[in-house]
Structures are given as structure tokens and as C-alpha cells.
Write the C-alpha cells for this entry.
Amino acid sequence: LPVANFISADTVVCTAGMSRFTNLSTGGDTYKWYFSDGDTSGVFEPAKFFDLAGSYDVGLTVTSVDNCID
């Protein structure tokens, strides 16, 4: 079964800029990232530019080759 997990050193964006995410997930075949500004990404470890300072929610869905989802 897949287990979604990630970290980012950028927990709050103090100025507009790039945030990087480290994927620590296991058992995954595909990855879908969701950002609270409406953007998504399908890459393993995305870098995301936020236009405004603030706190953003980030979610990650991991799907295995057997279509199990976490």
C-alpha cells in the first residue's frame, strides 16, 4: 500500500518565491500534489512558485501500480 509523506523547509512564504518539496512517500507509482492557490503538479518532487507571502495548504495523493491510493 502507498503511504503519502513529504517535507518542506518552506513552511511559511514570507515573500513571493520558490518553495521546494521533498517526497518521502513509499509504495507509489504516481503522485499528485495539490496547492491551496489552485495549482497542481504530477512530478515526484515539485518546486512551486508562490506569488504572495502567506501560509499555503499542500496535499499529496500517492497511487500504487495496483491503484491503491493514499
Remarks:
- The chain has a mean pLDDT of 94.
- The first strand starts at residue 6 and ends at 7.
- Residues 6 and 31 are 11 Å apart (CA to CA).
